[in-house]
Design a protein that fits this description.
Helices cover 42% and strands 18% of the residues. The chain has 393 residues and is of the alpha/beta class. It has two domains: 10-50 and 89-203, 3-Layer(aba) Sandwich (Rossmann fold), CATH 3.40.50; 56-87 and 208-391, Rossmann fold (3-Layer(aba) Sandwich), CATH 3.40.50. The protein is globular.
Length: 393
């Protein structure tokens, strides 16, 4: 079975391009040019140089000794939290800003939930001297104030989304509306593996540097490039796509995607799309989507601003329905406790998104000789207020 995108932009039954007529030229422009640009030697050279000298790659693959002792297995953390801007998001924004420049775009728009993608987009726009507008849900603006301040310091305009749940989905809606109004000179840097083709594939390719590094780093640590498990959190799913990318064809590598169960799967306040969703179309692609019987989107919820998306990227929908990846979930409480545990055992404060991935260590029985890689997709600085309130610190 093929787990990558086909020529029509589909992963199995999922994906495609469902766009308003006004955006059709933009879609065709991207579809016809993204692979040519990404495969151009000068693009590759500039992309790799910025990843090394500006982002700080490769990010370490760290053997978490005390965490491994507790769970009686070998646990490695892929330290995307040590990237410039504090998360994996910068891998994608570096790639897309270089692509936008080659397409002659003078303006960038983006959406953000937790704020990490917004910061990463504002960062690369400042680096390249390009105008930047970031759309962010009003609720997320309140709970991610440090990242909002960073975006403004970097010269970006932050526009609140005040419709719907006032979170990531609604910020994406606003960004798409803005793009429809400015289709010619503007590029939309989508932050996850969502949206119409080629975005899911393009973002996954930029993020695939994560699993590319894991392979050679694990060869150095363990004498094999293949772990027994790769675990990553999934909202839209870009960090998971990057961590899974180079292992998709190797069935002996177990892939675990962890969604946000919020206050509980049956609580009505959750974002566990694999369990609660069914096929539908959102933001230009066909995927698994939380929706009512008549097709209205169910508002997602998570204590983590980056995971409360009502769908998943189409590749993840395919990995779920095909059985290639195991989809688990963690509640707010489980994630927060897992985050605190990492703080106390390893001296690392994780983003709450990443804490959902760590929560799986309590849910699976790993063998002592097995190698488990957890993608630590972001650092917890942005979430300190949430940690403070939750634990009464």
């Amino acid at each position: 079975m093929n787990y990558h995108v086909d020529e029509k932009g589909y992963y199995g039954n999922f994906g495609g391009s469902f766009v308003p007529e006004m955006l059709y030229p933009n879609m065709i422009e991207l579809q016809e040019n993204y692979l040519k640009i990404m495969n151009d030697p000068s693009f590759k050279e500039e992309f790799q140089k910025l990843l090394k000298d500006y982002v700080g790659r490769p990010s370490p693959l760290y053997f978490a000794q005390r965490l491994s002792q507790k769970y009686n297995t070998k646990i490695y953390l892929k330290r995307e939290d040590l990237n410039h801007t504090g998360a994996h998001k910068i891998n994608n924004t570096i790639g897309q800003i270089l692509l936008a420049k080659r397409l002659g775009k003078q303006r960038i728009i983006a959406e953000t939930g937790a704020g990490q993608h917004g910061v990463a987009t504002a960062t690369v726009c400042a680096l390249m001297g390009i105008e930047c507008t970031v759309y962010m849900g009003e609720i997320d603006i309140a709970r991610q104030a440090p990242n909002v301040a960073r975006m403004k310091m970097l010269g970006a305009k932050v526009v609140p989304a005040i419709s719907g749940s006032k979170t990531l989905k609604d910020a994406t809606n606003e960004a798409i509306r803005a793009w429809i109004n400015n289709p010619v000179d503007t590029h939309y840097i989508i932050g996850s593996v969502v949206g119409f083709h080629p975005y899911p594939d393009m973002v996954a390719r930029f993020q695939s540097i994560i699993s590319e590094e894991i392979k050679w780093q694990l060869q150095e640590h363990e004498g094999t490039p293949y772990p027994d498990y790769v675990i990553a959190c999934v909202g839209g799913g870009s960090n998971a796509s990057g961590a899974f990318y180079h292992f998709l064809e190797y069935k002996n590598v177990n892939l675990i995607a962890v969604e946000a169960a919020g206050k509980g799967i049956d609580s009505g306040a959750s974002a566990a799309t694999s369990i609660l969703g069914k096929e539908g179309i959102i933001h230009g692609s066909k995927t698994m989507l939380m929706q009512t019987k008549d097709g209205q989107i169910i508002e997602p919820y998570s204590i983590s601003a980056g995971l409360d998306y009502p769908g998943v990227g189409p590749q993840h929908a395919h990995l779920f329905t095909s059985g290639r990846a195991e989809f688990l979930n963690a509640t707010d409480d489980e994630a927060m406790q897992a985050g605190l545990e990492l703080c106390k055992l390893e001296g690392i404060i994780p983003a709450i998104e990443s804490s959902h991935a760590l929560a799986v260590l309590n849910k699976k029985a790993f063998k002592p000789q097995e190698v488990v890689v957890v993608n630590l997709s972001g650092r917890g600085d942005k979430d300190l207020n949430t940690y403070i309130e939750y634990f009464n610190l």
